[in-house]
Design brief:
heterodimer; A: about 110 residues; mainly alpha; about 75% helix; B: about 140 residues; 6 helices; disordered C terminus
Chain lengths: ~110, ~140
């Protein structure tokens, strides 16, 4: 049993290091698409770490937490991609900010 | 170690290995599209092996884990396709050429069908927020 616990501890440590590597890309990513890819991988890492904790602590109720995290990560990635795609259309911001800024007249 | 624990550890090692490889690929690969290719490894192979290990550890939740794996196999290509299409439309820097470019053909047809006058008169360079920021910095 001790071998099982120590193996799971090592696996959780490796997953944490891998999550840190993903945060490097989130930090140095030159533009928003790179950061979106990093965010997608970070949500997948969150699901994996929650599943490993459920196995280590013998808590099957954490698996529903993993399900909710998976769905929320997919929604976040899709909404970020949709925001990116809409931001490419020129003049998109003028639909909601029709009043000009005061500093444009001087 | 019982045989069930050995199976659980083997599947967890496979999942963690693929997730680590995907994370290294996200940092090391040179292009956004190549990084998306690396991210797909974590979201299909890595997380499905991890969920299978949890399903073998808790046999009562094995059907739920299989459903979650099916959900990942459905949602990961959708998310990657949305990201790739948004990147292709916003960023014009590419290291490859496509023989069949459906997005460019569609954009050309849209421009030919309806050239909208509102977008042509207001170019993107005259964005008010950026102009205000530059003015404040010059003072």
């Amino acid at each position: 049993m001790a071998t099982f616990d120590s193996a799971l501890a090592i696996l959780i440590l490796v997953m944490t290091i891998s999550l840190g590597i993903c945060f490097i890309r989130l930090f140095i990513g030159p533009n928003v698409p790179n950061r979106t890819v990093a965010f997608d991988t970070i949500s997948v890492h969150a699901v994996g770490i929650i599943v490993l904790f459920a196995v280590r602590d013998n808590a099957p109720s954490l698996l529903s937490v993993a399900m909710v995290t998976a769905v929320l990560g997919f929604l976040g990635t899709t909404i970020l991609a949709r925001y990116l795609e809409r931001s490419a259309e020129e003049g998109w911001e003028y639909e909601h900010t029709e009043r000009p800024f005061p500093s444009d007249h001087d | 170690m019982t045989p069930r624990e050995i199976i659980v550890i083997v599947f967890a090692v496979i999942g963690v290995f693929f997730t680590l490889v995907s994370a290294i690929g996200i940092v090391r690969l040179p292009d956004v599209y190549a990084r998306m290719h690396a991210a797909g490894k974590a979201s299909t192979l890595g997380v499905s092996a991890l969920l299978l290990s949890a399903g073998f550890f808790f046999p009562g939740s094995l059907p739920g884990m299989v459903i979650l794996i099916a959900l990942f196999f459905v949602t990961a290509p959708i998310a990657t396709t949305a990201m790739a299409r948004a990147t292709y439309r916003t960023d014009s820097r590419r290291h490859f050429t496509l023989h069949y470019d459906d997005i460019a053909t569609l954009a050309k047809e849209e421009k030919k069908a309806a050239p909208s006058p509102a977008r042509a008169t207001q170019p993107r360079a005259s964005r008010p927020a950026r102009a205000r920021r530059s003015k404040g910095r010059s003072k």
